[in-house]
Write a structure and sequence with these properties.
With about 700 residues, the protein is mainly alpha-helical. The chain has 26 helices and seven strands. It is globular. About 10% of the residues have low confidence.
Length: about 700
């Protein structure tokens, strides 16, 4: 907005939030038609802030999808004697306007008149704050006697505003009491801690809220940014129990040691620390890294932790607030400055285990110094490239996604394609894989002005990285949007949206040619619907990601070391499983869609069983998506045709190995069936003989 409506904390502390005042002028024009020229923004008096939430169950019933959860900045404005305002109400916002004195207002709110309904936020302000200001109006407007720039007054609304799908309920009054006690005992720092703890406990997202879906609220899931702030759509336990093969796979994975930890048992305390941190900052990659041959597993562990530390710096939107140039310098110099410092400690950055990692980064640097020259060279080179790439996005406005497809691809290359490049170079440098692994593939990539400066023939590795990253970006639509750093390309989503706001797709009553699809989880309706335009955009991005699969399969074909194959295959199979779960799924717009834990176990076991099993599962998910393309949103249009083409190419690529695996499994099932039948018949004969006796 111009003038800017965003205020830094310093503006609030000084009692002069010019952004808030500019917003007040704009909204008075929007709702009451008061011309900006008739208002003097400097005459607004900022008093304080209030925090409240309420569900509109009075209008929409007990499962209302609409409500408010907001922090309001309160301003007073007084007209001078004889001054008039031109008021022309916006009929879509305001039905009627009336001037009231303090006595008139008191009677009206007591139900004496024709205005029975009052917004909950105004009733709270009137009852708790406004009367004192009004009785001493000159003082309130001309001095700072009533100004409170440090507190956020938190109030619960009356019971008639509780409930709804956002689950509004008594909470804020207790938070306010706890803050007051903390302020008295430990000062402002302690009060802030109480407020942050309450925020994590609250976990409300302003789109759909908890609704009827289960929400994962374990403290271990709290990460930086939007992570942990939106619902995770869980699979009902009964659904999981009805899948015995997945349960068997989970037991096999847990009890038989399919994925060994080859880092465990090292006598070097720094290596022990790195192994421990690996398990804490990565549930997904820890197991596949640890099962690599010992020295290679240490190399890749350090590579992962270095990039995770770099990512922690990039993700922290608070530590460098107002110091973006410092953040850019940190990212660019990370390899040179941090990776070579055995005593490195980065304080005040990150959250939870990531904070511990960067605070003790010197221990990672000490292990890095002991790696082979080849591994050190690759890790340093990729760190420098990625840091420089991340620095480009520090000052970029990503609230509405990347600019276009090229920017989308470049971002994915910087944060994931480079990882694939680095891993491939380490594999080849170790002597465990041949240079054939560094192939170009079907996709032709170029991310700098001079293609000759690109790493030669690493297109396959880049495609693998992009496939993983694009799948994550598709799945994390809501988390990223809440965090203010979204990545869906504007050139794609704006071709489907009715507005210039990516958040439009998350609205419970979205849009879409008058057609709304029910949003469900566990068989229960979560919201009134998601528009078909949102699903068209989702399916378009799924089609784009699927086009990378042939390169991923080609890369896997070239891997010769079983442990490295498992390392590469497991994330790729998980990605296509996640993509199949997200495809044409409205739940993407109301939370995080994840695959079943049992299915995860079954896919890991399959990757341990070799390439034929991996091809079988790629084929399974491609067939699942292909079957849905007959009825999905956009089935008859360009998106549907693009999806069909991608699926058919995957099916062609996986047919031979998949059929070999299926035949082998059929033989196993026949043997198991025969043994079972023999056991049952033996039991029957034994029982009959006993009965004859």
């Amino acid at each position: 907005m111009k003038p800017c409506e965003v205020d830094q904390p310093e503006a609030i502390a000084q009692g002069d939030p010019k952004g808030v005042k500019a917003a007040a002028v704009r909204k008075l024009g929007h709702e009451l038609g008061i011309p900006a020229a008739e208002l003097d923004a400097s005459r607004f008096k900022f008093l304080t802030r209030v925090h409240y939430w309420a569900a509109d169950v009075g209008t929409y019933g007990s499962e209302a999808v609409w409500g408010e959860h907001e922090i309001d900045h309160i301003l007073l404005y007084r007209l001078n004697a004889g001054e008039q305002l031109s008021v022309k109400p916006n009929a879509e916002e305001v039905e009627a306007v009336r001037w009231l004195g303090s006595g008139d207002l008191k009677e009206a709110m007591a139900g004496k008149g024709d205005m029975p309904l009052w917004s909950p936020w105004f009733r709270i302000i009137k009852e708790r704050l406004l009367d004192a200001w009004w009785q001493d109006l000159d003082t309130a407007l001309t001095t700072d006697k009533y100004v409170d720039v440090t507190s956020i007054h938190r109030f619960d609304t009356a019971p008639e505003f509780h409930g709804g799908l956002g689950d509004a309920k008594p909470l804020l009054d207790e938070v306010s009491k706890a803050e007051a006690a903390a302020l008295k005992e430990g000062g402002e720092a302690q009060r802030r801690k109480v407020a942050l703890d309450a925020e994590h406990e609250d976990r409300i997202v302003g789109f759909v809220g908890r609704g009827k879906a289960e929400v994962d609220t374990s403290a271990g899931d709290v990460k930086q940014g939007g992570y942990g702030k939106v619902p995770t759509h869980k699979i009902p336990k009964l659904d999981q129990l009805m899948r015995p093969l997945e349960i068997i796979s989970a037991l096999r994975l847990k009890c038989t040691g399919l994925l060994e930890n080859n880092i465990k048992g090292q006598t070097d305390e720094d290596i022990e620390f790195c192994d421990d941190m690996l398990g804490k900052v990565s549930r997904s990659f820890a197991a596949v890294i640890r099962q690599l041959p010992t020295q290679l597993s240490i190399d890749i562990c350090i590579f992962y932790l270095v990039l995770r530390a770099l990512d922690t710096v990039e993700d922290d939107m608070e530590a460098y607030k107002g110091r973006e140039s410092d953040k850019q310098a940190e990212l660019i110099s990370f390899g040179e400055k941090r990776l070579t410092d055995p005593n490195c400690s980065i304080t005040g950055v990150g959250a939870a285990d990531e904070r511990t990692l960067v605070e003790n980064f010197g221990r990672v640097a000490r292990v890095f110094a002991k790696l082979s020259e080849g591994s050190r060279e690759v890790i340093r080179n990729i760190t420098d490239k990625m840091g420089a790439g991340m620095a480009e996005y520090v000052s970029a406005d990503l609230a509405q996604g990347t600019l276009d497809q090229a920017a989308y691809n470049r971002y994915c290359h910087m944060v994931a394609g480079l990882v694939g490049e680095g891993l491939t170079r380490i594999f080849v440098s170790s002597g465990m894989e041949s240079s054939e692994l560094a192939g170009q593939g079907e996709q032709v990539w170029s991310f700098c002005a001079d293609p000759k400066k690109e790493a030669a023939n690493l297109g396959l590795a880049n495609s693998m990285g992009l496939f993983l990253q694009k799948t994550n970006i598709i799945r994390d639509y809501l988390e990223d949007y809440v965090d203010g750093r979204a990545f869906w390309p504007q050139s794609v989503w704006k071709s489907y949206a009715n507005s210039n706001d990516l958040g439009e797709f998350a609205l419970p009553t979205s849009h879409g040619a008058g057609k709304l699809l029910p949003v469900k989880a566990g068989g229960e309706v979560l919201a009134k619907g998601v528009g078909v335009q949102a699903l068209l955009c989702l399916n378009d991005l799924v089609a784009d990601a699927l086009e990378l699969v042939p390169d991923s399969l080609e890369y896997l074909e070239r891997v010769s070391t079983p442990a490295i194959y498992r390392f590469c295959a497991i994330p790729q199979v998980m990605a296509i499983a996640t993509l199949a779960a997200c495809f044409d799924n409205p739940l993407v717009f109301t939370g995080v869609v994840k695959i079943r834990k049992g299915l995860t176990a079954r896919l890991i076991v399959a990757c341990c069983d070799g390439p034929n099993a991996v091809h079988f599962w790629f084929r399974q998910f491609a067939e699942e998506i292909l079957a849905q393309t007959k009825t999905c949103v956009g089935a008859d249009g360009p998106v549907g045709k693009r999806l069909e083409k991608s699926c058919h190419r995957i099916l062609e690529r996986t047919q031979k190995r998949s059929e070999a695996w299926s035949g082998k499994q059929t033989q196993k099932r026949l043997v198991v069936g025969a043994v079972t039948a023999l056991a049952v018949s033996s039991l029957f004969v034994g029982t009959s003989l006993q009965n004859q006796r």
